[in-house]
């Protein structure tokens, strides 16, 4: 994973884990690798990984079981809510970029079917 220097690493780690959850790569109730394993995988300090985990636990996306490790929430409504918010964020960014190119709303809507055909 390549990190963006303009954003704290723990936030980028949180975003990656959220992405894995909302995309279905990590299913509800799945066990998460340990702090040390993930810190090694991403090439970060374990304290940074721990901070990302702590924030994800605060947001109730992950939960810890004392000696058993950390798990993805089983709350499918929470996962779907996060997924919807991310889709909304991406859509709003797309619309903003299209408008910066001079496209009007009607033109953006007309453009979408072509985008789907090209992505297949």
TrEMBL record:
The UniProt GO MF terms for this protein read: DNA binding; DNA-binding transcription factor activity
Record CDD domains: WHTH_GntR
The residue range of the signal peptide is none
Under the heading InterPro entries, the entry gives: Tscrpt_reg_HTH_GntR, WH-like_DNA-bd_sf, WH_DNA-bd_sf
The answer to whether keyword Transcription regulation applies is yes
Q: Which residues form the HTH gntR-type domain?
A: 7-75
Q: What is this protein called?
A: GntR family transcriptional regulator
* Keyword tags: DNA-binding, Transcription, Transcription regulation
User: Which organism's genome codes for this protein?
Assistant: Clostridium aminobutyricum
Q: Which Gene3D superfamilies match?
A: Winged helix-like DNA-binding domain superfamily/Winged helix DNA-binding domain (1.10.10.10)
């Amino acid at each position: 994973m390549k990190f963006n220097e303009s954003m704290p690493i723990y936030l980028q780690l949180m975003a990656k884990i959220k992405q894995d959850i909302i995309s279905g790569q990590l299913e509800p109730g799945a066990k998460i690798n340990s702090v040390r394993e993930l810190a090694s995988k991403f090439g970060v300090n374990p304290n940074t990984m721990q901070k990302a985990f702590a924030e994800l636990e605060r947001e109730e996306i992950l939960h810890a079981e004392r000696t058993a490790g950390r798990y993805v929430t089983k709350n499918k409504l929470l996962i779907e809510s996060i997924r919807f918010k991310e889709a909304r964020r991406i859509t709003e960014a797309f619309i903003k970029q299209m408008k910066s190119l001079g496209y009007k709303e009607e033109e953006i809507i007309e453009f979408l079917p072509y985008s789907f055909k090209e992505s297949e």
